[in-house]
């Protein structure tokens, strides 16, 4: 087991290294000149050149990548003398357009994305599994049709459309909720809740849809299994069979996918954060795209990749725990 | 009793002759189950209707005398909003006019369907082709090939795809334009389709690989191999026909997702450029007029919901129809 876990972690690290290489090269090859973006319109060429040297963009590409990787482990110093500054480890570079280290920026925006993801996750799992169970138990009847329709609509609508619809309905038309303006939950819990309830709902409605479908299909499949027939033959109560055998067996793949989906969300819910103006990682990424802020883009891409890869390892190890056959492979 | 084994059994279980029970192939059985599902038939009808409307958009617009680009200032009041109730719905403009410009919404919806469906179908076609080819290749060859493909899939999945799609739009459309793809919307459309396939093939390949791994060990494949069939025959005649069911289901579920992605990109200003119509452009536009002209907000949204809903219902129905256990139910 230890060997299995170690191997998975080593592979994950290698994968992240490959992702960092491709990401760095991909963004470095873009036509944007990061040094030219370091100062405004009235910029002198000398300043651009000086900044290019200061940020290390004058070096060959491979050396730049090496400095990036090295900076992550030991921190990075920029420039010399009075104008020098540094980003401590784990450094992901320096954003000149925001005048801050990328790590600092991510550390500041990540909590917002985390609260958004966590709340939405709890909501959508409850909603999705609940509706899916109802649909499976009432197969072919109107409850099934309603749940299936909900899941089809939810899965298909663009996030921005639902988000804006919800935002306008509750904040402008009905005026039940104040316009979203993010506050930390530790400083102003009430304002935090009234701001977050709509983004949570938006994400939950969109994601719950897929889980409704998965739960329904998983349960219907499980109902055909021999162990269910055995349960009936033994004379177990229907509720017991459904709770203890059908739902449990249907939930195994759902938990796996839920882990991966949650991790993907932690990389930044780009559209939701933009629509509800939440200062999270997703909105920062969009801003970085608009401003061609390459260090921030590399940083957020890497952070998102870390969550995806990490979730994969956790899921794999959990599978190894649940199913001993996986380990030997 | 001298029973002859033909396709048509003329003996009923109690031995009386006359009740005809026909043997049916799995495909016929699936079709039978599918036909029974009224929702699925309606969904298929809706999809055909959309395809027809998109394909003949110029003809329909010519017959109705409307155009997606013509500005009709007379249909707007002094504030630039449509005259009359419900977004200016009239005998001339069946679905009203766009606020600000006075362009006909029905015409724009029809032309927008061309873009949205084109992105959906081309994206799906490319994704599925690549995914099926790589999936069969990895699953059939196994061993080292499978391991290499598997690592490559892990790598592709590790990237946050939506962020990259957005971040790379501008440079890559410029690259496409410099490679000779016509500037503007053709280049943007090509980019969207290519980038959807770049990140989408993995999901198809994963399923196809898994199915191929188990199919290749089955008796009928072994029989074909034993009787001297080549790899080409086994892949195309033995494996591929058995892979359609899972592939169709993935397709019906991913196609609406591609349509939605296009509209999201257009909403962000990275998709189709105005004055070209796409549902995404219309959705993004209509949001600005939410209070003054709510009808405009609903029309493209409803058009999108109905299409996507139809695809989802169809996909579910196909899945149910192809499931040999569908008619059995114990609980």
Put the structure in a nutshell.
The complex is a heterodimer of chains A (329) and B (331). Chain A is mainly alpha-helical and 329 residues long.
Task: Describe the model.
The complex is a heterodimer of chains A (329) and B (331). Chain A is mainly α. Chain A folds into two domains: 2-101, no CATH class; 103-328, MetI-like fold (Orthogonal Bundle), CATH 1.10.3720.10. Chain A is 74% helix and 3% strand. Chain A is built from 13 helices and four strands. In chain A, the strands form two sheets. Chain A has a two-stranded antiparallel sheet with strand order 1-2. In chain A, strand 1 (76-78) and strand 2 (85-87) form a beta hairpin. In chain A, helix 5 (142-156) packs across helix 7 (189-223), helix 6 (159-173) packs across helix 7 (189-223) and helix 9 (238-266) runs antiparallel to helix 12 (294-322). Chain A is globular and about 85 Å long. The N and C termini of chain A lie close together (12 Å). By secondary structure, chain B is mostly helical. Chain B has two domains: 1-36; 113-321, MetI-like (MetI-like fold), CATH 1.10.3720.10. In chain B, strands 1-2 form a two-stranded antiparallel ribbon. In chain B, helix 8 (219-226) packs across helix 9 (231-267).
């Amino acid at each position: 087991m230890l060997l299995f876990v170690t191997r998975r972690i080593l592979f994950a690290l290698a994968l992240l290294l490959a992702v960092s290489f491709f990401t760095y090269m991909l963004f470095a090859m873009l036509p944007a000149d990061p040094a030219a973006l370091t100062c405004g319109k009235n910029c002198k060429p000398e300043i651009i050149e000086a900044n290019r040297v200061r940020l290390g963009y004058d070096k060959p590409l491979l050396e730049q990548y090496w400095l990036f990787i090295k900076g992550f482990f030991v921190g990075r110093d920029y420039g010399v003398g009075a104008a020098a500054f540094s980003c401590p480890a784990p450094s992901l570079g320096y954003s000149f357009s925001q005048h801050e280290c990328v790590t600092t920026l991510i550390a500041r925006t990540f909590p917002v994305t985390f609260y958004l993801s966590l709340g939405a996750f709890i909501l959508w799992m409850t909603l999705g599994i609940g509706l899916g169970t109802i649909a499976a138990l009432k197969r072919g009847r109107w409850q099934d049709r309603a749940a299936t329709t909900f899941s089809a609509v939810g899965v298909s609508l663009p996030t921005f459309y639902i988000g804006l619809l919800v935002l306008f309905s509750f904040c402008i038309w009905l005026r039940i909720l104040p316009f979203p303006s993010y506050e930390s939950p530790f400083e102003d819990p009430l304002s935090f809740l009234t701001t977050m309830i709509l983004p949570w709902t938006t994400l939950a409605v969109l994601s719950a849809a897929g889980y409704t479908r998965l739960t329904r299909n998983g349960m219907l499949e499980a109902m055909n299994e021999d162990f269910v027939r055995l349960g009936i033959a033994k004379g177990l109560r229907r509720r017991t069979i459904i709770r203890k055998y059908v739902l449990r067996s249907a939930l195994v793949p759902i938990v796996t996918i839920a882990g991966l989906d949650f991790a993907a969300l932690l990389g930044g819910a780009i559209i939701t954060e933009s629509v509800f103006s939440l200062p999270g990682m997703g909105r920062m990424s969009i801003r970085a795209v608009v401003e061609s802020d390459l260090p921030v883009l590399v940083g957020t891409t890497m952070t998102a990749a870390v969550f995806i890869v990490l979730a994969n390892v956790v899921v794999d190890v959990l599978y190894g725990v649940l199913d001993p056959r996986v380990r030997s492979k | 009793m001298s029973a002859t084994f033909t396709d048509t059994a003329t003996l009923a279980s109690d031995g009386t002759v006359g009740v005809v029970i026909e043997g049916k192939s799995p495909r016929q059985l699936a079709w039978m189950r599918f036909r029974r599902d009224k929702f699925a038939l309606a969904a298929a009808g809706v999809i055909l209707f959309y395809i027809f409307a998109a394909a003949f958009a110029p003809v329909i617009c010519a017959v109705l005398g409307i155009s997606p680009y013509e500005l009709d200032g007379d249909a707007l009041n002094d504030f630039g909003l449509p005259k009359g109730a419900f977004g200016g719905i009239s005998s001339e403009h069946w679905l009203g006019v766009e606020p600000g410009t006075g362009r006909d919404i029905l015409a724009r919806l029809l032309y927008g369907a061309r873009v949205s469906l084109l992105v959906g179908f081309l994206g799906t076609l490319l994704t599925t082709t690549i995914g099926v080819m790589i999936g069969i290749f990895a699953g059939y060859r196994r061993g080292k090939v499978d391991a290499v493909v598997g690592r490559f899939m892990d790598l592709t999945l590790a990237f946050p795809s939506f962020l990259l799609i957005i971040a790379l739009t501008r440079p890559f459309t410029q690259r496409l334009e410099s490679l000779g793809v016509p500037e503007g919307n053709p280049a943007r459309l090509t980019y969207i389709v290519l980038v959807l396939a770049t990140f989408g093939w993995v999901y198809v390949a994963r399923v196809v690989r898994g199915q191929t791994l188990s199919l290749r060990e089955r008796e009928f494949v072994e029989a074909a191999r034993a009787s001297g069939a080549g790899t080409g025959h086994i892949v195309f005649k033995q494996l591929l026909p058995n892979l359609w069911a899972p592939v169709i289901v993935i397709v019906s579920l991913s196609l609406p997702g591609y349509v939605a992605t296009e509209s999201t990109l257009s909403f962000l200003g990275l998709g189709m450029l105005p004055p070209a119509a796409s549902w995404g452009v219309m959705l993004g536009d209509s949001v600005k007029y939410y209070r003054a002209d709510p009808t405009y907000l609903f029309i493209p949204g409803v058009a999108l919901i109905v299409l996507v809903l139809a695809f989802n219902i169809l996909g579910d129905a196909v899945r149910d129809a192809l499931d040999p256990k569908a008619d059995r139910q114990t609980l």
